[in-house]
Amino acid sequence: MLRRAGPAALVAAADLPPDALVVHAGIVGAPEIVAERLPAGDEFEAAVRAVEHHLGTPASALGVIEIGGLNGLVPFVAGTTMGLPVVDGDLMGRAFPRLDQTALAAAGLPAGPVALVDSSGELALLDSPTLTGIERILRAVVNSVGGAAAIACYPVRASALARHGIAGSVTRALELGAREPPAGEVLFAGRVAEIRRDGQGIGSVVLEDPEDVSQVARVDMSDEYLAVTVNGEPAAIVPDIICLLDSDQRRPVGTEQLRAGRHVLAVRIEAPPGLRALPESLVGPSAFGL
Amino acid sequence: MRVRDLIAHPLLAGATVLAGEGGLDRPIEDLCWYAGGELDRCRDQLVVCDPSVVTPAYRLEAVVRRAETAGAGALLISGPVPLLSTVRIADRLALPVLSAAEADLVALLHGLTVTIRSPELERARVLTRVLQTLRARPQTVSASLAVLREVLEQPVALLAADGSALDGDEIELPDGLRLDLDAPQRSGLVVLHPVGKVAWLASLAAAPVDDWAALTAAALAAAEPAVRACLAAQQLTAERDSRLGAHLLGELLAGGVAVRRDVVERAVAAGWQLRGWHTGIHLGLRQAGDDSILRSARVRDTLAALDLRGPLVERADGWTTWITAAVEPPLEDGRNVVDRVRRALLALPPAWGLHAGIGRPHEGISGVARTLAEARDAALLARSREWTPAVEHVDQLGVSRLLLSWNESELMRAYADSVLAPVRRVEDGKLLHTLQTYLEHGLSVSATAAALGLHRNTVSARIARLRELLDADLDDADQRLALQLACRMLQLDSLHS
């Protein structure tokens, strides 16, 4: 879609008129389900339009909710179809599992109204005075429409976004991806020896060095990788950005793509300053029950 | 106590070592409960982990590291299976991680606290139970053994002074025990405690732990006076019965056909059957022991088990008993009795050197004396046999019996002495023995050599020497018969003396 209609224009929040409305667009739901049921493409626009309609103000630009994963790209798809620029920045500085783990939430700004549109066009508009309320309703609605949906949320003035958002995430991501050798610090290279997911809680993947199996690393995860422990010593922990890369192709390996025997690199990328400035209770280990 | 000892303890019977086997020799001085937070002051301790601090599995890894830094002895968990990385790290640190599986950790903590902090408390508790239960039970040896077995939950037995089983469970004695010293001792898992000088209390420790063996030893020592008292009481009764029995039997045998009326009355009062047909059995004992009372009980039980039930009277050289039938038993019944007595001998310890004789069935009061006399004679013959179990029936003795009566004759004895005198003291009696064997084997040199375990040339040489020394001519049938009779008589003579 990007190739057909793109590229979308990139704009800094500070360069927008202070009163301009920015609506954040993305996908919520399990990555496996999104991979099974690809979005049609027009549901993002429908979601953004629903928020605009509710507020009675048209959006001047679209925002990125989280720079990590598929949601780093979704606003560009919506931007090309709607003819709107995309703000160079995001609300998380990486990927997080919950909608309340954002820089705007930390600043006390509301996430609502939130619009959800599923691939068959069904629309839900929801709001709540609290983030936890929104999070709860959101999960229920997403489950009822099949586990994944397009979302538009965090409608915000450009001036507030410039002050509280994490700026420059998109250019930074492009710059990191273009670097050779790959960016980040390789903490451990090895083979997946054990994958453990204990129900809903935190799972772990154990990597071992094929040359010397007494050398081990443990990567704890939920939907994202949260911490790396090499031979019992903590090596990285949220809000650090932790990636597992395929040893040969250097492509990211998501938690749902882990298979025993696969050779991977555990890589740590330092969190951007905007992310590090967020409260620990929102983005640190305790936010994940670590 | 080491980690190794701890996991051998019955309390941890269901536990497994998940990781860190290399550290099983680490010392364990104490134990503590860990429910999160700092982990200090646990040097050389067993750290029992609240399930919440090791769930999900990844959390155990940090606990392992913290425990190692604090110098802990081992970890005990009951949470999820550790991650591979945790296992590898614990292996590398040689820090044992024990899993109690589904066990209740709190109950385990309480049990282990006593075991680790104050083993003497556990010992005291066991001893108290032993003593209290002993008081509440009937005072017999079997009941005392049952109490020990119940409290210790392990096999317990009463052994004779020579280590043979008398009562209780079967316990195989390992090497290295000194049964000649009447002192408490142990070898491997077997713990022994002497009961006076006549028996041993034995038990097989349930766990290969020093503490447990010490506990067992203490329990045996606590029960020993009770067992000894039972044995002494049994001994008193048995000795009284035995003395009465021996006295009664003496009068019965001395009376011949005319037994005094009061003797008959006393015998009947003692439960002795005097009417009917009696078959006498005499069990001869080569090796007398201090524990004759224990042995008597054993002999009585063994005979009873083979349905040989009758009064058992202890005599200087063994035991006498007789079985009684209402009508005259058929001839083949004799073989049946021989067979059962043989089985009884096989069931009793070979070390006692038992042999037996059986008399013919005789009727009435005087019949008792007759059949017992026959049985005793037959036993005497059996004693000279070199095979075991040696059982002789008087019917099968034939010539031997003839000899027994001739033996009474002074003339015959004088002849035997004189004709064998030239070879009697030669070469420690070896020549005489060779002569006996040679005559018994029909003058066959090879059969004699085989019986004596000698080369036939040796036998030939000895026979040549015999022919020189003896006045009698071995080629003359009459003289040969006389010589053989003399040999037999001499054999009987030596047995009588």
Category by helix and strand content of chain B:
alpha+beta
Unreliable spans of chain B? none
What shape does the CA trace of chain A take? globular
Overall pLDDT of chain B: 84
Terminal residue distance of chain A: 39 Å
Helix count from the secondary structure assignment of chain A: 10
How would you characterize the largest beta sheet of chain B? 6 strands, mixed
Q: How do the SSEs of chain A run, as a string of H and E?
A: HEEHHEHEHEEHEHEHEEEEEEEHH
Largest interface: A-B, 19 and 17 residues
Question: Any overview of this molecule?
Answer:
- The complex is a heterodimer of chains A (290) and B (497).
- Chain A has ten helices and 15 strands.
- Chain A is α+β, with helices and mostly antiparallel strands and 290 residues long.
- In chain A, the strands form two sheets. In chain A, strands 1, 2, 3, 4, 5, 6, 7 and 8 form an eight-stranded mixed beta sheet that branches.
- The longest helix of chain A is centred in the middle third of the chain and has 14 residues, at 131-144.
- Chain A is globular and about 65 Å long.
- Chain B is an alpha+beta fold.
- Chain B has 17 helices and 16 strands.
- In chain B, the strands form three sheets. In chain B, strands 11, 12, 13, 14, 15 and 16 form a six-stranded mixed beta sheet that branches.
- The longest helix of chain B has 46 residues, at 210-255.
- The model of chain B has no long low-confidence stretch (mean pLDDT 84).
- The interface between A and B is medium-sized, with 19 and 17 residues.
